[in-house]
Amino acid sequence: MKEYLLLFRGGDAESMQESAQEWQAHMQKWMHWMGGLQEKGQLVGAQPLDRGGRQVTGSKKVVTDGPFMEGKEMVGGYLMCRAENYDAAIEISKGCPILEFDDGIVELREIKELKM
Amino acid sequence: MEKFMFLFRGGENHAHNAQDSKVAADNMQAWMQWMGDLAGKGILVGGEPLQPTGKQVTGTKKVVSDGPFVEAKESVGGYLIVNAKDINEAVEISKGCPIFEENGRLEVRPIQSMEM
Q1: Are strands A54-57 and A2-9 parallel, antiparallel or unpaired?
Q2: I need a labelling partner for B71 at 20 to 30 A (CA). Which of A74, B85, B98, B106 fits?
Q3: CA distance B87 to B109
């Protein structure tokens, strides 16, 4: 089994949050999706990220406030899962509720093993 | 204590970027030392490098494409999760990161707590 990091980008969470009911229904789908992965032993961990943040750059370690790039490029959250290979990880990704948005993106990246 | 995610971008001396294997090995050593030190202080929650390639699944049609997805210097190369009192402390922790010696940058993002 390999581990994959799924990075979520895009998806218009902001406009959806204007309707509490719509937002709650959407969040329910995330919970349902992640709950399903957990039951199958595929979920390693997942959290949404706050929209704010800081950036530290280069040898001078210059600190700037976020956001750092266009909204649609920004990472909004992550999930780590176990899968046999990329094809299996892609199948997992296809259940992700961010894909209910036309501009929703799941980036899949295989995690390198790190020997410490 | 709150949790913060560091997303690493750029960095010229990583194994897959460095021209010189000695430079790559020294760089790896610096990362190990930094992460080991954070682990010793109970600051480190987790973190791993990512393979430079990957996949992307987009929108309601769930179109699958191969990475890389953004310019190499914009691409996320790895992540780290740390415990810190607040974002200012998290930024201070991040300043010890060896990525600044290889012309890289790092994004500090507060993790939202989520009840499942």
Answers
A1: unpaired
A2: B98
A3: 8
